[in-house]
Amino acid sequence: MKTWAVTNQKGGSGKTTSAVNLAAAAGELGRRVLVVDLDPQASASAWLGTPDGGRGLLDVLTEGTALADLVVETGTAGVDLVPSSAWLANVDRALAGEVGAELAFRDAVKALPKRWDLVLVDCPPALGLLTVSALAAVREVVVPVETSAMALAGLAGLLRTVERVRDRLNPGLAVRAVLPCRVDARTNLARDVVAHLRERFGSVVTETVIRESVRVREAWSFGQPVTTYDPRGAGAEDYRAAARELLGLDPDAAAPSVEVLDRTEAPSPEPSP
Fold first, then answer.
1. Is the distance from CB of 241 to CB of 208 less than 8 angstroms?
2. Residue 214 — φ and ψ, nearest 5°?
3. Distance from C-alpha of 183 to C-alpha of 189, rounded to nearest angstrom
4. At what angle do helices 234-247 and 214-221 cross, to 10 degrees?
5. Each residue of 124-161: pLDDT tens digit?
6. Up-side HSE of residue 172: CA atoms within 13 Å toward CB?
7. Which residues are bridge partners to 35 per DSSP?
8. Which residues have a Cβ under 8 Å from the Cβ of 29 and sit 6 or more positions away?
């Protein structure tokens, strides 16, 4: 069972968008996917049809409730969900002074039955207890990065946090991929940022990039992943290619690369989750 944390400390990086759409694309590929929404904003939960998970995940972290007891089905083929809620915002206070508090989620993930091929954890956009708990629990990290200069500054800090968690809590933790998102290839900035990512981080940066897409942003409003909302669009193509690449399937189909992005859609003024 693969376990991924999708994380970036910067909001607006495409983190939740990538978590939901990678899960949906993996489901299309025949994988059984469990999305665990560890973000108190619960955007992934709302996107997948369960806007309020109640106390569930808070009780997992504070009372030892089994994650499997919280699993709900979604309307997306192959994808199940452990929903989040604003209750999770209380976790720092609830676990203040608890020895090994950041390991409670790791124990819960280990206790999951092996009926999923992939457990994908959507983390909050901050490097607090919830994100550290996710990093301590998974084997690999997927980092969506918006192609802006500000996003690059936050990436280095996140990768240092991953190194510290690996040294202190989870020796097997690895960065699975840095995934460039919201790439508008009509701008020099987007091309320069992708080139800089490849130069600095090498093969950990995916060959696939996620193009700027109005349809991807609209999909959240309709409660569907882009693979069903706009199945033939650029966003759906990109997330399918990214899922294949991250799962190690058909690498020749993991395009488009930034050099051939000639169908970038016009940017939307609305922020993505």
1. yes
2. -65, -40
3. 9
4. 90
5. 988 889 999 999 999 999 999 988 777 777 788 888 99
6. 8
7. 81, 120
8. 240, 243, 244, 247, 249
Residue 226 and residue 247: Cα distance in Å, rounded? 19
How many other C-beta atoms lie within 10 A of the C-beta of residue 258?
Answer: 20
| 24 close to 49: Cβ distance less than 8 angstroms | no
How far, CA to CA in Å, does 86 sit from each of 90, 91, 208?
8, 10, 34
First and final C-alpha spacing in the chain: 27
Rg of the chain on CA atoms, in Å = 17
Residue type, 88: L
Name the residue among 173, 104, 114 with its Cα closest to residue 138: 173
Q: Distance between CA 224 and CA 215 in Å, rounded?
A: 11
Place of tokens 């992934």: 44
Q: What is the mean pLDDT of the chain?
A: 89
Q: How far is CA 82 from the centre of its chain?
A: 14
* Whether the model pTM is above 0.85: yes
Query: pLDDT for 99-111, tens place per residue?
Result: 889 999 999 999 9
CATH entry, 2-260, from 3.30.450.40, 3.40.50.300, 3.40.50.1580, 3.30.360.10: 3.40.50.300
194 exposed, middle or buried (CB, 10 Å; 0-12, 13-18, 19+)?
buried
Q: Where are the domains of the chain?
A: 2-260
CA 255/CA 103 separation, integer angstroms: 38
Pair of tokens at residue 79: 């994808």
